[in-house]
Amino acid sequence: MLALLDAWLLAPFDYGFMQRALVAGLALSLAAPPLGVFLMLRGMSLIGDAMAHAILPGVALGFLAAGFSLPMMSLGGILSGLLIAVLAGSVSQMTGHKEDSAMASFFLISLAAGVMLVSLGGSSVDLTHVLFGSILAVDSTALILIAGISSLIVITLAVIFRALVVECLDPLFLRGQGVRGGLVHGTFLGLVVLNLTAGFQTLGTLMAVGLMMLPATTARFWSQRLEGLIAIAIGVALVASTGGLLLSYHLSLPSGPAIILLAGLGYVLSALLGRHHSLAARRRRHAMPLGAPEPH
Questions:
Q1: Model confidence over 96-152: pLDDT tens digits?
Q2: What's the CA gap between 80 and 238, in Å, rounded?
Q3: Quick one: which of 82, 215, 62 has its CA closest to 129?
Q4: Which of 31, 61, 94, 245 is the most buried (most CB within 10 A)?
């Protein structure tokens, strides 16, 4: 039994590429879910998906300029994501349209432009790598960049945490305290762009948002407190990253989709069995005697 567990759980990580993939996945799992929780609380869940595609033109330009150079592709992705965020905000302010509709419009433009650029300058293999990533191909340079960006995100979130919570719940109070809500909001969107840029190497631009949003939405079925949401979301992401890598290794599956599908399985099970707002919770509530207190 122990030999079987060792062969399935530990032996795969004797290889250097699996060790690097594991560290990259764990780093992203610590940084991405808290951002997803705040996106969910702010009603901006789909903005994360739009931002994931907003980095694609910059990644494509970096690829055309220097091939598979992660620093250049990351720099291009960061600049492209920030530019799209600024443009969407500007259009929203100038026209009165909601920011999410402006972001959705720019997301479609960015996606088409990015795919076109990669297709013109590379092969279908290059396009697949950019769109879907390859966590098993993470090298030392990519690992250092991912770990550095993830650390920066965690530290910055810790610094702006209180202001970000207040800005979510009562932006007028935050303004009354002399703190510019726009600065907090802009910093937060910048962190989202940074995280998606770090994640595209491992999960690709099309799925980088999955490790951000699926653990966050899963946690909503188990906790109603902010600290609980963040802790559970991080735990789900850690399990999905590690489990997805093991499934990929043993079953010869694509690593990125395996990670995201495992996180998706956690979401489906939580929607059925979770403590709050799930199908099971709804049935328990209907079965309770009239006037009985709800369980906490």
A1: 666 667 777 877 788 788 878 877 766 555 556 666 667 767 888 888 988 999 999
A2: 29
A3: 62
A4: 31
